[in-house]
Amino acid sequence: MNAGVAYRDGATPVARPGAVVRIRDLGIRLSPDYAVLIERFDLMPGEAVVLDSGSGTGKSTVLGLISAAIRPTPFGGESTHVLLGVAVGPGIARLSYAGPGQIGYVLQTNPLVPYLTVGENIRLPSRLAGAHIDAEWQDHVIGVLGLGALLARRPDQVSVGQRQRAAVARAMLARPRLLLLDEPVSALDPENADQVEGLIRHLAEDAGSAVILASHQAHRGAFRQTARVAHRLERDGEGRSRSIFATAARERGQAA
Amino acid sequence: MRLALTLSLRDLGHDWRATFCFLAALMGVLAPLLVLFALKNGIIQNMVTSLVDDPSNRELIAEGAARYPAEFFQALQQNPDVGFVSPSTRSINTTVSALRHRDARALERNVSVIPTGAGDPLIAGEVPEPGAVYLSESLAEALSAEPGDTIEMFVDRELSGQRETARRDMTVSGIVGKQLYGRDAAFLSLPDLLAVELYRDDRAISADTWTEPRPAPPYYPSFRLYARDLEVLPKLRSELAAMGVRARPRAQNVELLLALRTNLNILFLAVAGLACAGFWFAMAANLRAMTETRRVTYSLLGLLGSPLGQRRLIPLMQAVILVQGGIALTLLAVLPTIAGINAYFSDPGGNAVAQLGLVHVAATLAIGLVTSLTASGWALSAVGGIGMDEVLTHAA
Ligand SMILES: Nc1ncnc2c1ncn2[C@@H]1O[C@H](COP(=O)(O)OP(=O)(O)OP(=O)(O)O)[C@@H](O)[C@H]1O
Ligand SMILES: [Mg+2]
After folding, report:
1. A227-228 and A47-51 beta bridge pairing
2. What pTM value is reported for the model?
């Protein structure tokens, strides 16, 4: 799919077949005095960015907003939300922009369907979309993540770290053009975390996926050089605060 | 559709404890209801039927003696509300002097003789021809007579101080059961009854010729009359009253008997209705609770691209599977119970004490299907209310 696109850390890609993510002023009011706002989010194919702001600032919320799993709050101004060229909105079928080949999402809570085996969980998004499964790539992903012996087990029969790796495999199985990673290695000790992060990065490069990683541990490991999403907290006079996220502004004409 | 079915079944199998509880709750409600229903179809129905449909309840007794012409009886015979009518020679029963069973040497004096004919609700089998007789059960016992036996009938008369006795042989055609007629009586054809009366009154008739056929009289003083069923008895009575014929029901409590059947039906409908409603709400609540424990999974399925219709199909299919499965299990438990009840208790009429037919089983399954489809509505709407964002922060 995007195998030909070079993987680059935050740099402006040479080839630009269209932005993977383009967002302006998309946010949600979580409580009367707390809101999370994505001021600007641009991501080109194969690019990677890291969200590394503190706990509770809204990293998971940002990923939810980008994937349209969270319904945004209207803030008065006009907002833009385009994923892979599709303008996301209430009437748009989810599978038209968030199918398994479009978005792979590793959630912070690592949920798996409890009544399906690990292998069935990994294949579930493709089955839901009725998409063809590339057996060679499947074997590759499962092999790289070391899940081969666990495929027939149920989620309650594997460790938390193994669940995390299964969730990564589920997200990667259809070579998504956008990979959302919410603390994908939080359950692992630092050494293993670095190793798994390296595997994820390796797989994402193979698949040509653009990556958005939310992590506390990104100062080390495979994504330590990757561009950061800027974060700032704005407070108004009445004690209300806004947690604001923005990717780096691009030179004129460069943002698709 | 197929994927939703797979997910439904896998979920039920995985959460087998909840599945078991659901089935147990369903069986707990349904099993007693089905047994009760089987008893209603069996012994209770039979009891009510034998009580309400007892022919003697349908009898209208002529009051006083009158002169009823043949046209009167023809008209009654054509009246659709009439079950049976026969002319009668007296307003109270005629008696013969004695009946004797030859072989057993048993003798009964002053036996009532009652005219019978086609359609008599007391006579099961062929109507007695002249020379044949049905005996009430108590009389048959007293005479030790059985169908096919021959008995002697004696009729005495006293004319101008002279005592004479006529006799003839009668064939016992059958027995009238105790529950139909409780006292001693012999049921015979109208010509035979007329012969008894004529012999008593007419000097010209001798003991040798008294059984010969004679023309029917132009008028009869009384009648035996049964309504077709209990419901039309009051109507028939007022029809007679309109013709100036006074008759009273043998049963003093026709209204009460009619109300008994109606009220019992209402009672059972109410019990079944309440039980169905309870069943419905129990299912609805159970299904709703099941979706609650699966919130995170439904949220995840939505996030992974399962459309809402597909996600809703899961609890819907589970409802159908659980309810139909529960009914099947209940039947597996209830049918042997019913067989056991029937083996242990015996109904005097020889009918099954508890009865559950194929129709009832099919109806139960159909009601179950409707219940599962409608009772899952609450669960279905709950699935619609589970957002994709829940799985972002809530662990499975
Ligand atoms: N439904 C909600 N109502 C009110 N506040 C909420 C709600 N959901 C989240 N929050 C708050 O919003 C903030 C952002 O939550 P979020 O999970 O996005 O943070 P995070 O940056 O991912 O944190 P962590 O690094 O611990 O995962 C938190 O302070 C949280 O308490
Ligand atoms: Mg988070």
Report:
1. parallel
2. 0.76
